[in-house]
Amino acid sequence: MKPSLIYLNDEVAAALREGRAVVALESTIITHGMPYPANLETARGVEAVVRDNGAVPATIAVVRGKIKVGLDDAELERLAAAKDVVKASGRDLAAIMVRGGSAGTTVSATMRIAALAGIGIFATGGVGGVHRGAEATFDISADLTELGQTGTTVVCAGVKSILDIAKTLEYLETQRVPVIAYQSDDFPAFYTRSSGLKADHRLDTPEEIAQAMLLHEQMGSGTGILVANPIPEADALDPAFIDGTIAAAVAEAEKRGIGRKELTPFLLARINELSQGRSLKANIALVRNNAALAARIAVAHAGSKREAA
Predict the structure, then answer these.
(1) Would you call 257 helix, strand, or coil by DSSP?
(2) Has 160 been annotated as catalytic?
(3) Residue 152 domain-assigned?
(4) What domain count does the chain have?
């Protein structure tokens, strides 16, 4: 851990010091992923789910130039309601800190900060990936390269279904990132339980995934692990419906020339509008589901490390 860079709240610091389970949580879902106040309600709810499953939540953000690992409720509320908060990938952190800005951290930034803080597992909704048309635009998320060089396990509901999922899986293979589906042979597609593509591996218990984490670390692999946890069946959207909705949103973004960092927030907001709020409900459900699994893995991982010591 780099104490001059990172500010741990007391609860997270105590848990790490005592070897207890901690789950990192990103903040872009609060600042750019959902409208207010649904974002605040979701952030509080996700932290509660982590606690209910035996771990300590560590929501990560940049607050007035300082990297915070673990936010209190007042900080969560300010972040959720703020209009001047930017979206920070790993490459953006230093410049934002220098100017004293505040930022929601993406998957890549959260992975990097979690690794510096000594937190081995992180829960999010979906990770970024290879965008449709990337062969012309080269639009590939930094989340994938971060997974290839930072040893954090990321629990998600697959990659966002606005992306080219087949190319994303190919890129993860190139980056040497293990892709493990939880209790499924298929790789999920965020709003739906299957993308139609197979995952590299299937594991069926949090304990198995925790053991895989330990072995991956012991081999000095140097990469993260992507755990793909399908959205609960009751909350999944009809594939034909959501695919049509996504296609309409992507076409509108292209027509309006929206790209780079603005693309994903625009698409998620537009998909929510076109689906009359159904996609937002699904998003909240899958994030909570991922937080619960991540907490159970973190508890098993912490227990295994104590046994091995």
Answers:
(1) coil
(2) yes
(3) yes
(4) 1
In angstroms, the CA 142 to CA 171 distance is: 11
Catalytic residue from among 18, 26, 262, 305: 26
pTM summary value = 0.94
CATH classification of the domain holding 136: 3.40.1790.10
Annotated catalytic residue within 83, 160, 198, 307? 160
Q: What is the C-alpha to C-alpha distance for residues 109 and 115, in angstroms, rounded to an integer?
A: 10
Q: Is 207 a catalytic residue?
A: no
Binding site, residues?
Answer: 87, 107, 139, 141-143
Domain of residue 224: give its range: 6-308
Instruction: Answer yes or no: are the C-beta atoms of 70 and 110 closer than 8 Å.
Output: no
- Whether residue 17 lies inside any domain: the answer is yes
Asked, for residue 131, whether it belongs to a domain, the answer is yes
Q: pLDDT (tens digit, 9 = 90+) per residue, 228-261?
A: 999 999 999 999 998 899 889 989 988 998 877 6
Q: Say if residue 57 is preceded by a cis peptide, omega within 30 of 0.
A: no
